[in-house]
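General statements about sequence and structure are easier to judge against a single worked case. For one protein, we set the task of working out the structure tokens from the amino acid sequence alone. This step matters because it turns folding into a mapping between discrete strings. The amino acid sequence and the backbone structure tokens for this protein are reproduced below.
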Amino acid sequence: MTPLLLPLADEPPLISQAGNTQLVLAALAGIATVVALIVWGKVHPFISLMLGAAALGLVAWAAPTDLVTSFTTGFGATAGSVGLLIALGAMVGAMLAKSGGSDTIVDTIVGRSGARALPWAMALIAAILGLPLFFEVGVVLLIPVVLLVARRMDVPIMRVGIPALAGLSILHGLVPPHPGPLVAIDSLGADLGLTLLFGLIVAVPTLLVCGPLLAVPIQRWVPVHARTDLLPADGPATGAADVAQREETTLPESRAGSRDGARHRPGFVAAVVSITLPVVLMLARAIVELVVDDPENRTQAVFDFIGTPAVALLLAVIVAMFALGFGTGMDRSEVERSLGSGLPGIASILLIVAAGGGFK
């Protein structure tokens, strides 16, 4: 019988011989220290996690040298397994934003949706954009779209805002290759394919219920419309396409194109393929493993390789370079800058995630 609880992957050696009660108290002390420092002390989470690990070790009577070794080992293991995925995902997200691919997705879906279908369209947009993006980045990208769509259709912000937030948060928590689920998979030693399969099974109905359906009563409880002063300064928008067009006339190089005017936005298919490729490859790997079930089979070996999260995301970066970069008129230096622009913003996230591995 398969056990209900999975053992932690690569479980480190014990550094304390304390009893169960003392270990529970040590864990509570460590967690309380982290929460207190972040919430009340306003200390950066990275430092808070380090000090929380120290508090945990002291209460558990762990030797100082063992405590430091355990933390650095966990830090390195988490950074090595998850840090690469976060960096590659950030590069795909940066290419999507810099090329205007996110605008293309928004314009296409919103432009073909009627007033009644807009909440469902916003949920779909958020779900697609949420695959390579962190929740905070996705919110920043979608807030202008939510405000402008709500203004154009003269509906409460909640009617389109709740579906957008639901799409982002559900992808953030349930579906790899988003870094959140990948961290859980790595920590628990879970099967990637099954996690992706069951994640999608849970994510779809959850998105429908907590997105467009939940927005119906919430818009009645919070009937707030988009304020004019939150819209672009040059007048009210008539749609997401107008917003993107206005941005193209004001933003240099990032979306408006190079100085010679040769830049253009990528097509809808190219943008969607670039960000859904990792999911397709990982799902294909899981299906091949179920159908073939032979580690010596060459076909399974190929899919085992390309369906590995790091390889799948690397392939997505390469596809994005050509489909969203060179294919839209970017030169090599522009593609390099676009890819690199996604990395500085995740430095803090990488440190916090790795410190969480050390704390664990």
Observations:
- The chain has two domains: 20-81, 82-342.
